[in-house]
Structures are given as C-alpha cells and as structure tokens.
Structure to design on (949 residues):
C-alpha cells in the first residue's frame, strides 16, 4: 500500500500475474465446444485460382466445415479496407484494389488465405487443410516497388494502373527549386529503409463465439484497439451490428503496430463461428505471422539537402517510393505520407521542403504502421543527410546540427507540423556530455591500437505523437477521429475504477493510469483499478498506437477526474457546511482549509450513493466521463549518440556505448518510460544491424521464421545510458509528449552514422551485416590506396 | 494414443494423449496451465521453457510422451504459495517485463542459468550469452539482464545465510 503519484517509480501492478503464469492471453481462453481453425494459404505470390476442391478435406475426421471465398462473398462479408484517404497531386483519390478475407479469384502474395478448415482439434484442422486442393495458374510477380512501376511489371490490381496507388506531394516545389539554384553546397543520398517484421512475441489469435439465440458475437482477440476493430467489423465488413458484437482484447503480448489492424483471419473466425455453429479458435504460428502480419518500412528515397555559404540549410528535396505490399492495410496510406513527410524538417529550421511520395503495390505482404510508422523513415533520411552533409562541409556533426536547430516556438515547418515546445540544444548537450563526445578521439586511437575501427554517430530525432486532433487528421483524410475517452467510477466505499479507451499490451497502464488517481486524491494504489480492452465495459475508445495513451488517453482521465473532484468537493462542502472553495483534498481526505474539519474520501463517496443529504438538486452517485480531443500533435524529441567498434577482420559491429537524451514532456513513471526507450532502441538497433524481410524474385518469403530473420538477442546489445529533459507539451493538461516510439525512431541513423564513421565509407545500407561492412571497408581501403 | 504420466509442479498427473502431443500442449491444453507460452515453431524464442528433471527444456520441442515419468516444473509451480520466487521478485523490482509473454520462459531460463553457474556467479556477459535462446521484443533486455544478476546475487546471499 503506497500513494504513488505522478513521477513515482511505481512498481507495476500487473506484474504479479505475468510473473506467476496467471496472465490471460487470447490463446489461454477456452469456450465450451470450441473448434479450431486452420487456413489454407497461397504458395504463390501471384496466381489465378482455377478451382478449389474441398471434398477430401470435408471427409477428414473431426472436420465441421471447409469454407472458401465464394461462400464468404455470398454471405455478404465486405472487403478489407484502408481507412485513410490520400489524394494524388493531380487530385485523384488513391486507387484501392479489393481485398477479400478469403480470396476466391486471384492471390497476390504468398500466405494469402484462400480457405479455412474448422475441426474438433487443431491437429485435425491442419491435417484437413493439407488436403484442400487449390488449382492455381501462376502469374508473374513483382517484389520491388520501383520495378513494380516499370513497363514490364505485372498488373496486380485492375484499379491501380502501373501498380501506382497514389502519387502524392507536400511542400513548395518552386521554393525548393529556388533554394537549390542558389545553394553553396548540395548533399545527395539514396536511402533505403529496410522492410521489417514487427514480431510481437505473442502471435495474433482469435476466439470467436456466435450465440445463435441472441444473434450475438463475442471475439477475444489480440488487438491494440478493440473498439476500432468492432467499428470496422460492423461498419465495413458487415459481420454484425455493433450492439451484437463484443470485442475483448485481454492481456496482449506486445503490439508495435501489428495488432492495430483487423486482419482476414479474425474476421473469418467470426463468420466461421456462425457457419460452423460452434466457437472457433485460431492461433497464428510464427511462420504465418511472418507471412501475414503487416510488415513495416520498405522505402526507397532520393534525398537532397541544399546549404548556403554559412552551412545553414536552405532546402530539402525528397522523392520516396513506398512499397505498400499486395493490399492496402488499414492505415497503410497514412504511414508514408502524413506520418512521414510531415516530419522531414527534423529538429531543423528548413525554409523550403518538398517531398513526393509514390505508393506502389507489389506481390508482398501488406505494409502498415510498425513502431514509429513513417517517423523512423523520416528520421533516418534526415539524420543520414545531416551526418553526410556535416562530413562534406567539414563541420563536426554536432556543430552542424546545432547551427540549424529550431530555437523559437511555436515553429511552423513547411510541411504542416507546428512544433509547440522543445529544447534541442538541451538534449544534444546532455547526450554529448553523457557520451563523452570530446574524449572520442582518444578512444578511437586506443581502439586502433587494438586493431579495431571505432566510430561515433549522432541522431537528433523529432516525432509527432498523439495522432490528433480529430479535425486535423480528418482534414488530412483519416476515416476516424483520434480523441480518447475515460470514465472514472467512484464506488460507494471510495475505491475507484478508471475505464479507458486506451489499451495496454505491455505499456503498464494499470500502473501509470492509477498513478494519476493516486496523485489527485492521495489514495493508495490498491484502491484503484484500471479497466480497458472490452467493448462491453468501456463505451468507446481509439486504442493505443502512436505513443498516444499518455498524451491523449491520460488527458481524458484527467478531465474525468476534474469532474469527479468538483462533485466530491461540492458534497464535502455541503456536509461540512463550508464553502466549496475552501475544500482541499489531501491524503485521501477532504478538508476544510484552516479548520480541523475533514471527511474521508470514503465518507464522501458513500454520501454520494446513500444520497440522504446531498446539495439541493444534485444527482446521486459519483461517476464522471470525458472525451478528450487534443489541440495539436505532440513533439517528443531528443539526441542519441552511438559508439561502435568494427572488427576489420570480420566486419562485425559491436555497440560499445549508446546514449539517449530524450524530451518526453511530463514523465508519469520514469521506470516505465526507461523500459519503453530500452525496447525501442533495441528494435531500432535490430533494424540497423540485423533485421531484413527478404523475398526471392518469385515472391517467396525467405525470412519466415526466427531461424531466418535475425531478431536482436541479449548479446547483440549493451546496457543503455538514458536521461530525460523535460519541456512541457502545452497541448494537454499534464504536458505529456509520449515515449513509446522514440527509441525505434532515433536509433537506426545513430548506429549507421557510427559505422560509416568507423569504416570511412558512407555507402552503407541497413541492416549493416558483417559481410556488407567488411566488403565496404576493404573496398574503400583499396580505393584509398589506389 | 499414449498414456503419459508425470509429476507436474509436485503433483502426479496422467492423461491419454495423441502420440504427436507436444509437452507444451500437454501442459497448456490437457493440464490447463497457460503460463507456459508458444511464441514460435522453431525452438528459437524460449517462451515455452519449463524444467524437466531439473533442466531447462523448450517444451515445444519435446513430445509429452518423452516426459513420461519425469518431474516437470512450470512457471506456476516456481513460487508455490509463498508469493514470488526471488527471480520473479527481481524481474518485478527491475522492470524486467512489459507485455509478459516471454516472461515465464525468461524466468525459467534464469533459474536454470543460476542453478548451473551457481548463485552469485553470473556477470553481464554470461547472462547475455546464456539468454541466446530467449527472445524478448519489449524490454531491450536491459532490465532482464539486471534482474537476473540481482536475483543471482540475492540467491547467493540467501544460500550463505542458510549455511
């Protein structure tokens, strides 16, 4: 029992169940009479389905149903959609091809589902899925996004000529051209942002249960936003109206974006539960996850930075081709546009920016938001450019950045965003100091004496979090509003339940959201429970992604707490015959200032519910709700410094020191914030050094297991040196900016800048695998010798 | 079908299962102990680590029949009724878990690591190397390594105090 308010390193309330095996994840759920689903998936990247023979499968033991796309379409189940409209620069809307949850005609990526088997056991379902005969006519496939726009590429969707979904632009092209004409120096880079598999450790899962008597569905699923899932399943996929569909996201084992979307499998389980007349469970295996979970990144860009004679930036020109995969996933269009190009100004005062983004279909797994979503791509591009430009013009990378920092706020960039608050010098200074930047030369010499190549790299990132206000995102094409809701229920004995539309899948909301209540009323943390992840309990909410739970979700809680506090004070004033303005809340008691009169929070709560003696006209009860819509995005920012040693004999990179100095605004629980940064950093380091989704030319996924896709292990990374430096966000009541994605956004360029510094060659692509680094170093040595 | 019997968390259990039943399926589905998780199909992730006759085993890689007659310990049996085992307590104290999915396997691997090296004999490098078979996507390993080191040292202190 402890009162742990804002800023406390409160240990997590949820930990005991996770540590003792009492967590309740979707795969842990059992429904009486449930059957198991196994999907039949395309082995081809592009093929026409000439026929599906389910007869042998239907005759297998334990099999209830074998369902195909024709039946799904016949039952009126709708296509999967992308919920963010983007218009091309010529004003035409994006060209979205149809996506059915089970494809009856043309498959467009390896792993696409074409049929599902429902059987008594998982083994029986899988055995039967193996004998479903699908007659395919193979079609040519294209994997690379630039190649997909070429004249010889196969047409993937009839709606999108040359496989081009949109050709979008932002910024002032003429102003940028003028800047480049007068530039004293231009730095150019071709940049590839590698495709990643998010890989939360819990694979996706669904348990769908149709109640024929009530015509009601219940779906337990691995979702970051169960209300949005219900909305989409109801409004677009016609599975059931909202009041006949309950979506529960219980304990969820990591998300990182993957679990934002409604996928074909979860939809099919709901539909199949009605068809088969029994609850249906499906649990993704890891290879299915690699094949079907939305991938992240996959950009190819040309970037140019124009500098004046004082080495100040005067223009930035970016051309990006974004690989969207075979279908447009739920937020796929927003990622390479409004979540990417609007952050291209970085921490810098850049008067003219223009970006052109082409989004392209390929015969690969759909691509959507993965931790950072667009902002890592923008940060990697600008921070690689900054480091390269500094080297070219002979300034220290730190000094070159400092020379171009934004220092007055609010700062309107040429690409929509208006930065509200920050202190970029403070985080740069802190990071350089913590990294002993000035002592680097001595460490480099020492490494050289040991036969190692030592390098140091900087990354100054900025991101936009919260993904709100609703009116702003609506004007940019979002199909939904991005506010958040909360309800604070004070029970008659003074315990409190907070219902939130945010969803925790590792972020520790049960602890941090409780801290808000403890802070407000001086109650101990055991008096508070956080309720989330169930559409029957929480009325509506937008879920958790884009580092929005603190900035938006907690703000809604604060608004509801304000209302509860106001009513509690009114009741207390009435009972103690005092003026409402004299009531102070302290240590779980409501006191009359300057007197010894007081009531416990429990006494006031009980008075609200007995309602024997309330102020004239007051309704009984103590329960308040709030919706909170922010006034702006939030802008976390910081500086990361990475120091590496490369072994010239093997090309292997070791990260010997990594410093992160972040400004997340108000920090509610430093322990949890540090954990978020650690995890983000390692995902970013994984992108920089290890991870790469790889297809062969026919569209076969070569990295479809943990044996083939290099996830960061404990011995790939060091301990991290973290600090936070607070400037409050003026856009929400607590001043929170958000911390969930920063690590993954800021770290990749710091790592690559360090390696290129170490090996003296800049032409390095991610992931910086040893053979690549070795070859680059030795070819640059050879060139230097010639 | 095979009849499989084992001592699971100190309790004798047996069941008739399909020959192809994995140990993890026996634990999760037959015995309904859902703390042991499945995170991959290739014995890489370590979410399914349990102890069989005192040694850490990936229970997704062993048939239930192979554990016939064995003593099996899962995360549910680690602390008994006494709250948290020192390793569990250290994971909480050091924030060595976020989503919790890899956590049971991490804790069981940590116990095996401490048993093999002896309490108090783990340094950072050894812990990181020993965690090769356990993947965590949330924590960046930073706090897991700290938690295991702290637990190892604390268990050494407890062992000393007991002498």
């Amino acid at each position: 029992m402890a009162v742990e308010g804002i800023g406390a390193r409160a240990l997590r309330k949820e930990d005991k169940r996770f540590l003792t095996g009492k967590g309740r994840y979707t795969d842990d759920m059992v429904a009486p009479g449930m059957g198991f689903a196994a999907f039949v998936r395309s082995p081809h990247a592009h093929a026409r389905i000439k026929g599906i023979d389910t007869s042998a499968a239907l005759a297998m033991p334990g099999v209830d149903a074998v369902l195909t796309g024709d039946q799904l379409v016949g039952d009126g189940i709708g296509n999967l959609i992308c919920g963010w409209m983007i218009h091309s620069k010529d004003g035409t809307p994006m060209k979205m091809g149809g996506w059915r949850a089970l494809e009856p005609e043309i498959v467009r990526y390896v792993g696409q589902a074409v049929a599902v088997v429902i059987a008594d056991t998982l083994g029986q379902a899988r055995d039967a899925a193996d004998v479903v005969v699908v007659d395919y006519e193979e079609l040519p496939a294209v994997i690379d996004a630039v190649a997909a726009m070429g004249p010889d590429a196969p047409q993937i969707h009839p709606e999108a000529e040359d496989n081009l979904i949109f050709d979008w632009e932002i910024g002032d092209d003429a102003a940028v051209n003028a800047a480049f004409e007068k530039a004293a120096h231009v730095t150019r880079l071709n940049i590839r942002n590698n495709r990643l598999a998010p890989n939360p450790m819990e694979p996706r899962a669904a348990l769908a249960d149709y109640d024929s008597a009530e015509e009601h569905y219940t779906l337990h699923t691995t979702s970051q936003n169960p209300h949005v899932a219900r909305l989409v399943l109801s409004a677009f996929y016609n599975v059931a109206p909202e009041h006949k569909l309950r979506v529960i996201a219980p304990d969820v084992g990591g998300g990182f974006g993957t679990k934002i979307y409604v996928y074909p499998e979860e939809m099919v389980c709901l539909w199949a539960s009605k068809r088969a007349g029994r609850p249906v469970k499906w649990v993704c295996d890891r290879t299915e996850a690699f094949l079907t979970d939305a991938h992240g990144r996959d950009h190819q860009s040309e970037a140019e930075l124009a500098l004046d004679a004082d080495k100040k930036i005067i223009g930035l020109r970016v051309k990006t081709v974004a690989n969207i995969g075979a279908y447009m996933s739920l937020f796929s269009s927003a990622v390479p546009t409004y979540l990417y190009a609007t952050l291209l100004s970085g921490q810098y005062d850049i008067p003219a920016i223009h970006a052109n983004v082409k989004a392209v279909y390929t015969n690969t797994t759909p691509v959507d938001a993965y931790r950072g979503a667009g902002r890592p791509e923008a940060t990697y591009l600008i921070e690689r450019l900054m480091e390269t430009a500094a080297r070219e013009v002979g300034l220290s990378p730190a000094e070159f950045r400092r020379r171009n920092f934004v220092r007055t706020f609010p700062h309107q960039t040429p690409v929509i965003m208006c930065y509200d608050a920050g202190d970029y010098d403070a985080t740069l200074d802190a990071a350089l100091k913590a990294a002993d930047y000035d002592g680097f030369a001595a460490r480099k010499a020492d490494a050289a004496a040991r036969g190692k190549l030592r390098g140091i790299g900087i990354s100054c990132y900025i991101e936009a979090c919260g993904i709100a206000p609703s009116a702003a995102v609506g004007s940019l094409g979002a199909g939904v509003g991005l506010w958040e809701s909360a309800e604070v229920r004070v029970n008659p004995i003074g315990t409190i339940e907070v219902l939130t539309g945010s969803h925790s899948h590792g972020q520790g909301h049960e602890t941090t959201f409780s801290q808000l209540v403890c802070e407000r009323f001086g109650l101990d943390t055991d008096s508070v429970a956080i309720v989330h992840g169930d559409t029957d309990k929480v009325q509506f909410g937008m879920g958790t992604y884009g580092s929005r739970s603190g900035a938006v979700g907690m703000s809604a809680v604060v608004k509801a707490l304000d209302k509860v506090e106001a009513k509690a004070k009114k009741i207390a004033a009435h009972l103690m015959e005092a003026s409402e303005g004299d009531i102070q809340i302290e240590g779980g008691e409501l006191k009359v200032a300057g007197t010894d009169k007081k009531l416990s929070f429990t006494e006031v709560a009980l008075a609200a519910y007995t309602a024997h003696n309330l102020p004239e006209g007051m309704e009984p009860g103590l329960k308040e709700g709030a919706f909170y819509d922010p006034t702006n995005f939030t802008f976390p920012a910081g500086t990361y410094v990475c120091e590496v040693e490369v072994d010239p004999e093997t090309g292997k990179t070791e990260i010997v020191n990594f410093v992160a100095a972040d400004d997340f605004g108000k920090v509610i629980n430093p322990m949890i914030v540090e954990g978020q940064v650690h995890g983000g950093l390692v995902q970013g380091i994984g992108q920089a050094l290890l991870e790469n989704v790889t297809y062969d030319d026919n569209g076969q996924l070569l990295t479809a297991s943990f044996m083939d896709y290099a996830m960061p292990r404990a011995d790939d990374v060091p301990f991290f040196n973290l600090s936070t430096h607070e400037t409050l966000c003026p856009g929400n009541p607590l001043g929170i900016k958000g911390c969930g994605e920063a690590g993954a956004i800021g770290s990749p360029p710091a790592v690559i800048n360090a390696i290129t510094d170490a090996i003296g060659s800049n032409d390095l692509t991610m992931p910086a695998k040893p053979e690549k680094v070795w070859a680059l170093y030795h070819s640059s040595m050879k060139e230097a010798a010639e | 079908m095979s009849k499989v019997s084992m001592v699971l968390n100190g309790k004798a259990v047996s069941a008739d299962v399909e020959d192809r039943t994995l140990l993890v399926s026996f634990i999760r589905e037959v015995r309904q102990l859902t703390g042991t998780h499945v995170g991959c199909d290739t014995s890489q992730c370590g979410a399914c680590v349990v102890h069989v006759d005192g040694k850490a085993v990936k229970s997704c890689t062993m048939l239930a029949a192979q554990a016939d007659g064995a003593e099996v310990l899962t995360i549910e049996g680690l602390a008994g009724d006494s709250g948290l085992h020192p390793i569990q307590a250290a994971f909480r104290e050091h924030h060595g878990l976020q989503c919790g999915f890899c956590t049971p396997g991490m804790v069981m691997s940590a116990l095996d690591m401490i048993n093999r090296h002896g309490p108090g004999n783990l340094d950072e490098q050894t812990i990181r190397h020993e965690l090769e078979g356990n993947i965590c996507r949330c924590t960046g390993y930073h706090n897991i390594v700290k938690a295991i080191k702290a637990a190892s040292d604390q268990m050494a202190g407890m062992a000393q105090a007991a002498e």
Observations:
- Residues 32-139+204-282 of chain A form a domain with the Aldehyde Oxidoreductase; domain 3 fold (CATH 3.90.1170.50).
- DSSP finds 20 helices and 28 strands in chain A.
- The mean pLDDT of chain A is 96.
